[in-house]
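To fix ideas at the outset, we first show an illustrative case, written as a sequence plus integers encoding its fold:
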Amino acid sequence: MKTVFVDVDTQLDFLYPAGALYVPGAENIVENITALNRFAGSRSVLISTMDAHTEDDPTFQTWRPHCVAGTWGQRKPAATLLDKRVRVPNAVGAYGSIDSAAQILLEKQENDCFSNMHLAELLAELNAERYVVYGVVTEICVKCAVDGLLKTGKRVELVTDAVHSLNDRAAQDMFNGFKKRAAF
């Protein structure tokens, strides 16, 4: 069964106290994320979604400025990066070959990774039968990724010890909804 791992928004601004939009306690899942990413890179392919905002991004009317492209906070922890990676910006034009990539860095400007204009095409190219999802924030961006992947009709699994939330109640609601819609 071809599996694609999906690492959602594990970026410095979210994972560590010095980050602009720190998710309290998220640093505790970095070790699990690193292990999952390494496993994915050795056996499959990994899509790592990443916020990549401009300095005047409209999302900053809702959220504090964070993950501005090219800044410290927009980066992923070095341990979560794989050697063979390709960047897929949310911009018109081809994104290049993913044939030899172990990790695909999928840039986005909204909570939903499906807002990247290339994601549907990328998923079709990868032709996975199963998706394994983890990252931050459980009830926001992880939920968007899970919801979109479930719509593909493929199997979706959520790694609960490699996600972290801002609101435990909202995260539990997300888990309960996921269990009702997914077979795992």
In short: Residues 109 and 150 are 21 Å apart (CA to CA). The chain has one domain: 3-181. The radius of gyration is 15 Å. Helices lie at 12-15, 30-43, 119-126, 138-150, 168-181.
